[in-house]
Amino acid sequence: MKRILGLPRWLVGGLAVGILLSYLFFANPPKPEHVPSPLVGPIIEGLRTTSVYAAPGAPPLVDVARARHVIGDRPIVVAVLDRTPLPHENMSLERQNLCEDVADATPTNIVMVFAQDSREYGSSICMGPEFSNPTNPVDADDFDLGLTVAAETAWEYRATATNLTPQIEEYVLAFDAQAAKKYPEFVPRRAIVPPAPPTASALQTRQIVLAIVGLIVAVIAVFALLQLVVRLVRRRQDLRAANDSRTVAMTARLNRLADNVLRPDKPRGADDAAHQAEVARRYLLALQQFEQDGPNDETETQVRELEELVK
Asked: Where are the transmembrane segments (predicted)?
């Protein structure tokens, strides 16, 4: 058997394939297109039962009870976070990006987020990707930038550094005005907020190692099984070839004996005639044995004894 580095080729091949598959599976794991902020989960869970979520430690800049009363069942949700600065992002868009994360998880609502970005504690507004839906068949553009600008203009002289509740009040008023103007016979309502999607847990190092080892062992086992199958097939072929050779040789020996049986010498007496009769009888038995069982050991014994008898 040919070897590589002292190991059978099939074993080296199994190791190579196992390592390659391990690399393909674990070296470059697929990355999710969008990983929501860790802040999103508690916010979404809170918004499942109320229109305004207030994080523990949130500053008293928003009157939560008043905000809930003003919003009612409109498709508007509010998240009020504490003063912990959000992770810095390019162009200081951390609060807006968080707002969009929440909007993705509450797709049928308009979202207002009050949080501390890299500059100040303030608000961001964004719209869920499914704000226009069969339950609220509206044109999302009617409630987008124009509505936000109108609300910001209205709250500019009401909201203060210590009271941001007017931002919510003015936004709701602007929302109602736009809804009455565009949809006089229809009032958009808030849908149920689905649970936050579970965050993917990272694979532990031990799990990865065990998975790699298991994969390599499985590949080696497959290669070993294939090697065993190949050996069995080859052995069967060798046995068949040996049996064919033995059959040919046995046939030739029986043909030579047939000459003595079919064309015997003229008997010189009764003993010689009896001997020829015994040879013929033994030949028929050997031929019958060969035709039934092939060139097995018993046939070999009968033919060899018959050859001794013919000498």
From this structure: 7-26, 208-230
